[in-house]
Amino acid sequence: MKIKGITDIFFDLDHTLWDFDKNSALTFNKIFKAHSIDVDLQKFLSVYEPINLNYWKLYRNDKIDKESLRYKRLKESFDSIKMIVHDDVINQLSADYIVNLPTFNHLFDGTLELLDYLQPNYRLHIITNGFHEAQEKKMNQSKISNYFKTVTNSELAGVKKPNPIIFDYALNLAVANKTTSLMIGDNLEADVLGALNFGMDAICFNYHGLKIDNSIKQVTNLKELKAYL
């Protein structure tokens, strides 16, 4: 069913438009080869991905800082597969990961088609908890920057989703109203519930197939958003 009265659409970036998992895997493959890290990539990723999500949750909740996130997610992943990697190597891998990650540009299936469909009728924006230096490069390299009027990141706003302050900051930057705005993102807590609790409508991009309440609007493919917009 079409959502009426929407003028501004706010997207999350990682895991919503930009295919983080695919680009991250390609990045690890590159930097592990460069540093002669002899590890089964799939085995590493199987432990890294949930560890990374957990550290991002801690980061969202202000339990750790950016530097701790970058180091600890790698340290804990190597420890989990019982691989000894010295701290100086972990720190270098962490730095190289940030540099190389935006050089891979895979988007979710249907991203460009959806943005082309939406742009003539809505003002489009980004709200991301990702780091400014990385997010800007990701958008430029994947050639989607021109679709968006504004980009709000947690470092600019001073808080992270789901804190209502970041949604208020994004609306002020966009000169938009919450009653005519919509948030689209993959993270139920940060993107969807964060927006809904703020008073903004939201749709969950539930590509991971999680069981969520039927009262929450959701799609499993970006192209399905056309049914709402």
From TrEMBL:
| Keywords, comma-separated and alphabetical | Hydrolase
On whether Hydrolase is a keyword of this UniProt record, the answer is yes
Asked if the keyword Hydrolase belongs to this entry, the reply reads yes
Read off the Gene3D superfamilies from this record: HAD superfamily/HAD-like, Putative phosphatase, domain 2
| Single GO MF annotation | 5'-nucleotidase activity
Q: Which PANTHER family match?
A: PTHR47478, PYRIMIDINE 5'-NUCLEOTIDASE YJJG (PTHR47478:SF1)
Name the NCBIfam families on file: HAD-SF-IA-v1, YjjG_YfnB
Record-given protein name:
Putative hydrolase of the HAD superfamily
Q: Which organism is it from?
A: Bizionia echini
Organism placement in taxonomy? Bacteria, Pseudomonadati, Bacteroidota, Flavobacteriia, Flavobacteriales
